Every structure is written in C-alpha cells, then in structure tokens.
Amino acid sequence: MTKTEIAEILRSHDEWLGGADAGRRADLSSADLRGANLRGANLPFADLHNADLRGANLRSADLSSADLHNADLHNADLRGANLRDADLRGANLRGANLILAGQDIRGFSFYAYADDNHVVVIRAGCRQFRGIAAAMAYWEARHTDDAILMEDCLSLVNRIARMAAIRGWKLEPVGGLDKTAKSM
User: Fold this and answer.
1) pLDDT tens readout for residues 21-58
2) Rounded Cα–Cα distance for residues 152 and 103 (Å)
3) Amino acid 1: pLDDT
C-alpha cells in the first residue's frame, strides 16, 4: 500500500468520523503496512484485522475501538497509542512496546508501554500514570467502598510491574513518584 493510498484512507476516515457523507470508515484489513509511519494517525473504529503492521510506527495513534484482531504488530511502536476498547484478540505483539495486563471487573483495559526514557506508562480505562508508584497510589485511594474492585485494579498494576521489570523497563521516573494522573 502506497503512502498516497494510506493518506487517502486516513482522510476519508476523518470525514467519516466527522459524519460527512463523503467519508468512509477505514478498511485496512489484511493490508500490508509493514514499517508504515502511522504516527499520530486518527483511526478509532478502523478495521485493521489481519493487517501486517510489523515494525509500523503507531506512536500516539488513536486506535480506540479499532479492530486489530489477528493483526501482526511484531516490533510495532505503540508508545502513547490509545488502544481503549481495541480488539487485540489473536494479535501478534511479540517485540511490540506493549504490555496487556487484562481487564478489571468493570471491563476497563489495563495496558502499558515504555516511554522515550524507558519508564513504564500505564493506561487504565481513561487514566494514565507514569510509573508504578503513581498508579498504585491512585488505585489504593480509589474504590475504598469496593474491596474486590480495588484489589482487582491493584493486581493488574502489579502484573504490569512484574512484566515491565522482566523487560528491563524503569518502574519509576527519575526523581521518584510522578503524582499526576491524567484522564484521557
């Protein structure tokens, strides 16, 4: 797929997202997008199932609610990508900059990536945390009236911490706790 074809699909998808009659939902299913630069692409609800995205730059792309099932994301750069409600069933994430921890009992996905300084960044539902301590502090103070939900959230953060440590990612930013929790 050429850069021009990709640009046209992205343009048409933006129109579709905006409700324009001329626009069309992005259908990149089974597309060969190896090494494609889709940094910052606006692809919510896009169909990317079975797409070959090996080595693609998807940094800061909006892939919320996108269909990525069975997509090949081997070595893809997913730093800062919004994967909220994306379908990643069967996706090949080997070597991708991504940890999928799972969903809490409400169905909110918990995932993480390493930022440019190799510090773990956690996304959970509509929240984002830089470093494990910030995420733990937030979830320890939340849902105090629902011990099961609180423990579920903390267990997912702990899973991310273990997996990030195995990958050699830094668990905390330089200088310690980043007290900012961002909503997305």
Assistant:
1) 889 999 999 999 999 999 999 999 999 999 999 999 99
2) 9
3) 85
- Residue 16: half-sphere exposure toward Cβ, Cα within 13 Å: 16
pTM of the model: 0.84
- What size, in residues, is the chain? 184
164 and 136 within one domain: yes
Q: How many Cβ atoms from other residues are within 10 Å of residue 54's Cβ?
A: 20
Do 63 and 90 sit in the same domain of this protein?
yes
Domain that holds residue 22: 1-97
50 vs 119: CA distance, rounded Å: 30
Judged by DSSP in three states, 102 sits in strand
The tens digit of pLDDT for each residue in 99-116 reads 999 999 999 999 999 999
Pick from 80, 97, 114: which residue ends a domain?
97
Do the bridges between strand 127-130 and strand 120-124 make them parallel or antiparallel, or are there none, so unpaired? antiparallel
